[in-house]
Amino acid sequence: MSTKPASVIICTRNRTQDILRCLPSLAAQTYRHFELIIVDSSDIPIIEDGSSVQAMNQFKPYFKYLHSAPGLTLQRNKGIDIATGEIIYFFDDDVVLEPNYLAIMQETFAKHATCVGGMGSIINMQLPMPIIWRLFHQLFLLQRDYAAGMFTLSGMPTHAYGNNIFMHVELLGGCCMAFRKSVLNKHRFDETLQRYAYMEDADISWRVSQEGPLFYQPAAGLYHYASPVARDSAVENRAMFMRNYRYLFFKNVYPCNRLHIVAYWWTILGLYLKALLLRDTASVKGYLKAIGYTLR
CATH topology for 6-125+161-224? Predict the structure, then answer.
């Protein structure tokens, strides 16, 4: 089979209805020179569903399907292994792309030849958090959107989502990131981050951004509907977040500058303090469940 300039990888698990909403937006792209790779870890493979097969067949002969063990980072790496495109796109299965998304992104990659990765924008972004909480997040070096797309001193990501200007960033969001295959030949997704793999996008962004600049292109838009299907409970989600944050801090940030440990513990304090102020019992329980990891 001949190759295409771009590969689109979608990893899915038990979300047939979500991927059936996503695929038509890919079929409607004005840029057609891509192959589609679906890496599926559903309990019942979606390839056995008639509606899914019909939706996927429209991409033949530039379509590949794999059924895999579960784990987002594992599935993405399996997709990379069989991708042939020079630019590899990763989309969540619960997104819907604007028709010109890939065309704009391909043009941006061509124009910015030194950039090794990039992402578009989320059209249905939530409104910015109230100013008091934005200041709180800035004070404690916490995550936030409508920001510069850089990492804080504690290794927390700040997302460019919500901005309306082209930006060079350090961080790409997991629902719509893309990389040149040349850089993915060196850097893969960390399979230590299992299942939903919270912050896997921050990890690979940190490593890849050491190779070259990344970009945020607001002209390329998509909708992210954040499916509730096949997600952990709120407590488990917060526990995974705390465990993964600790792992990634000591893997990526601490070796570069050990003084950042002060910023790390300041951020940990901020996470607990915010959960207590909001009486967010799920977050408190999740953070406490992960406390053994943060105290090692």
Answer: Spore Coat Polysaccharide Biosynthesis Protein SpsA; Chain A (3.90.550)
